[in-house]
Each structure stands twice: as structure tokens, then as C-alpha cells.
Task: inverse folding
């Protein structure tokens, strides 16, 4: 997912399927990797194509969207699933989310909003994984959240610069590049001064001096699985 988020569309209505499959390749940061007409074909294409995101209709012939979610929940790993449906009943929405859907969109879908939404949803599991690794290392302080976010960005795009990796934190916390850099540096300083086995494993092969923020974050990003599989 370094360059683009690969999207699989699962939609039985031909007009809606054409709309999404035509729009997605034109949207920044997204690419279309396939389209399914029903739930069984959706599961087959997930196995074959390993998309980053599935846009999943609920009402489909044969195996419906909820059935797809149930099948995916029994697996380890898999794509981010965004339900797209005309059904807006709160009971159905809660059911879909409880079965593992990351988001629920009521049709008609605003295609122009998809890039930002899917980018956010794809970062979320990477950030959680980074936080778990940092916790295992014994990381603490204000730099932990920022480091996890930055590692998630670098996992998606290993060529990203620090200013791009720090951008989500700078935007959400209304802070500065220098402040984020300082907080992460303080966190890494503490980890390096009192290294845990998890920290030593992450930094294995590096020079003995404290790694720079960029080196540490790239090592952290490399330990994450960008596909979710």
C-alpha cells in the first residue's frame, strides 16, 4: 500500500457497480483491483487479490454482505471493510460494525470523500499495531502517540519524509513539527538509555549510538504489516 490503496468493490447493482468502478481509478491515492457481483465472488476475489479495502454492499444475492463480514471475522487479518448500503436502520448498522466493518456509508456514496476516509481507516490498524510494539518496548511519554502515527504513515509509504509522517499529529493536535520531533526524541532517548529486549530486537544491527527519529520510525514501520494480512 505504499503508493495507492487497492480497493475491491462488492456490489450487485450494475449501475452502482459501474459508478464506483469508474470513479475509484480517478481518485487520488486509490486504485481499483477488482469488482464482485455477490458475496461468494467477493470472498474469492479477496483471497486472490488481497485488497487493502473492500467497499461492501449488504443486499446481494447468495451470500449477502453480513455473511461476508461473518466469514472474514473467522479469518486472521484481511482488508478494511467499508459497508455501502441503502439500508440505514441502526440495528443493521450496529450489526455490521459488530461483525468487523470499519465504517458504514449510506448510499449514495460521495466518491470524492473516499480518499481521505480510506486513508484514515487504513492507518488505524497500523497505528494500533505500532502502539502495541511501543508498549512492548516500554515506551512512555508524549511521543508515543505521535511515533505510532508516524510509523503508520511510513509503513504505507516508506519514502515519506518526516514532515509527512508527522503531519497527522501536527494537524490533529494543532502543534508544530519541532514539538513532535522533540517528543519522539525524548521517547527514543529513554528507550535507548534503558533498552528492553523488544527495543534491542527492533534496533538490532544499528550502530550503538541512539538512532535518529527517522531511523527508529522506519524500523518501527518495517515491523508492521501494511496489508493487514
Result:
Amino acid at each position: 500500500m505504499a503508493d495507492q490503496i487497492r480497493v475491491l468493490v462488492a456490489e450487485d447493482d450494475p449501475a452502482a457497480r459501474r459508478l464506483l468502478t469508474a470513479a475509484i481509478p480517478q481518485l487520488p491515492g486509490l486504485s481499483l483491483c477488482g469488482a464482485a457481483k455477490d458475496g461468494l465472488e467477493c470472498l474469492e476475489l479477496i483471497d486472490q487479490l488481497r485488497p487493502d479495502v473492500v467497499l461492501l454492499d449488504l443486499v446481494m444475492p447468495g451470500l449477502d454482505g453480513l455473511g461476508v463480514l461473518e466469514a472474514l471475522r473467522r479469518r486472521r487479518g484481511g482488508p478494511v471493510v467499508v459497508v455501502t448500503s441503502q439500508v440505514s436502520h441502526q440495528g443493521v448498522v450496529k450489526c455490521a460494525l459488530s461483525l468487523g466493518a470499519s465504517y458504514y456509508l449510506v448510499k449514495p456514496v460521495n466518491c470524492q470523500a473516499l480518499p481521505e476516509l480510506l486513508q484514515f481507516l487504513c492507518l488505524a490498524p497500523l497505528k494500533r499495531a505500532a502502539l502495541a510494539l511501543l508498549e512492548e518496548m516500554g515506551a512512555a511519554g508524549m511521543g508515543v502517540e505521535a511515533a505510532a502515527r508516524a510509523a503508520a504513515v511510513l509503513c504505507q509509504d516508506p519514502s515519506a519524509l518526516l514532515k509527512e509522517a508527522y503531519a497527522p499529529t501536527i494537524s490533529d493536535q494543532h502543534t508544530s513539527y519541532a514539538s513532535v520531533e522533540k517528543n519522539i526524541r525524548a521517547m527514543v532517548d529513554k528507550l535507548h538509555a534503558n533498552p528492553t529486549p523488544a527495543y534491542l530486537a527492533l534496533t538490532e544491527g544499528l550502530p550503538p549510538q541512539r538512532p535518529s527519529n527517522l531511523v527508529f520510525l522506519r524500523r518501527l514501520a518495517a515491523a508492521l504489516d501494511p496489508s493487514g494480512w
Notes: The chain has a mean pLDDT of 93.
